[in-house]
Write a structure and sequence with these properties.
The chain is an alpha+beta fold. It folds into two domains: 169 residues, no CATH class; 176 residues, no CATH class. Helices cover 48% and strands 18% of the residues. It is built from ten helices and ten strands. The chain has a six-stranded mixed barrel. The longest helix is centred in the C-terminal third of the chain and has 34 residues. The two termini are 24 Å apart.
Length: 375
């Protein structure tokens, strides 16, 4: 019976290809848009993508997300350093500045200022030059993907950041946030000279916890201090994503797109699969007249649905996977993140689409009068 079901399925290639590509498009739309949404959420976390040394991020208690900060003071830094269980605490600078380009144009860049002594907050990879050269006065490391946007500077060239001189001493590779795709690294002392600030000049304080001391205990001690809040990297990441979801329309827009993918796949796949069943209803009637049971007929329809589902699911997630791989290239401005959970979501969408078509087809087949073959 299974062999007959497959011959019926592959016999009409036009209908078979229509089924496969209709389902593939729906899966591709669900997986791709979901991956783009997750990629944007990850990209919104900004400097959190590049820093792995800190156990805690110290911020203002009213921080909404990582790119909107109210600066802390030197006194706050000293207070954090005095907390029991803190191994080290270093200032971390992260803000935007205007960079003058050749020809009179300008572009905003994200200035990241790291500790001069410990280099905590440094870029993940230095591709040219030396990290230690950041200690030179006015020295900066330019993120590789930003070179084309900044006029292709070379080592030894100078940039103008907020009308101040910046000496390029090397290049690095780092991930960037969605609010400023051009990243420039320097020391904290240099960074505060490029951006006019008030008396409070520290956007974040990065903290390392002593070995053997629970991070939760140190976090509770800092939270108990006035005007300070301690967040773990995951806590700050979730707070940022929560803000983006609630305060912007990104979640709603992508939710609508994914829902449309499910609706399109549901209607198209169900309609084509049902039409396929109607066109082969005489074959089902012959089998029923020959004594095929309802269980055998159900197995045939479900097998056809499974074959279409496996092929369509593979093509759809394969296309979404290729798209996500292209977004992982260094300097790629595509935002896509495709975890294994996205495969499960796409699989659920595939099952939903096929279930609708299968139920309609089964209803027709099981109610079929074998005498129709003689009409």
């Amino acid at each position: 019976m299974w062999r007959i079901a497959l011959r019926m399925l592959f016999g009409d290639r036009a209908k078979y290809l229509s089924l496969v590509f209709g389902l593939s498009f729906a899966v591709l739309l669900i997986a791709q848009q979901g991956a783009i949404f997750l990629g944007l959420m990850l990209q919104a976390t900004g400097p959190l993508q590049n820093i792995s040394q800190a156990d805690l991020w110290i911020t203002d208690p009213y921080l909404k997300w990582v790119s909107e900060t109210r600066n802390l003071s030197e006194a706050d830094l000293n207070r954090v350093r005095s907390v029991p269980g803190v191994a080290w605490a270093e200032p971390f600078f992260n803000t935007r500045a205007a960079c003058d380009l050749p020809g009179g144009d300008f572009r905003f860049v994200n200035i990241v200022g790291v500790s001069r002594n410990t280099m905590v907050g440094r870029p993940p990879v230095v591709t040219a030059g030396r990290l230690e050269d950041l200690r030179i006065a006015d020295a900066v490391l330019v993120e590789e993907s930003a070179r084309a946007k900044l006029g292709w500077p070379e080592i030894g060239d100078t940039l103008k950041l907020n009308d101040r001189r910046a000496l390029v001493v090397g290049f690095c590779r780092a991930k960037f946030g969605w609010d400023s795709p051009s990243v420039v690294y320097t020391t904290f002392e240099n960074a505060i000279t490029y951006t006019p600030l008030g008396r409070n000049k520290i956007p974040f304080i990065l903290v390392g916890v002593r070995e053997g001391t629970p991070v939760g205990e140190v976090k509770a001690r800092i939270d108990a201090m006035p005007d300070l809040q301690a967040l773990t990297p995951n806590g700050l990441r979730l707070q940022t994503i929560n803000f983006i979801m609630k305060e912007t329309g990104i979640g709603i827009n992508f939710g609508i797109t994914v829902s449309l993918g499910i609706i399109v796949g549901l209607t198209v796949s169900a309609a084509i699969f049902y039409q396929f069943t109607l066109e082969n209803i005489r074959h089902f009637a012959v089998l029923k007249a020959m004594g095929a049971t309802n269980l055998a007929m159900t197995a045939m329809v479900l097998m056809q649905a499974v074959v279409v589902g496996v092929v369509g699911f593979g093509i759809g997630v394969g296309g979404a996977g290729l798209f996500s791989l292209s977004a992982r290239k260094p300097g790629a401005e595509l935002a896509a993140y495709f975890p294994w959970q996205m495969l499960l979501i796409a699989l659920v969408g595939t099952v939903v689409c096929l279930s609708a078509g299968s139920l309609l087809s089964l209803r027709r087949v099981l109610r079929l009068d074998p005498a129709v073959v003689f009409k």
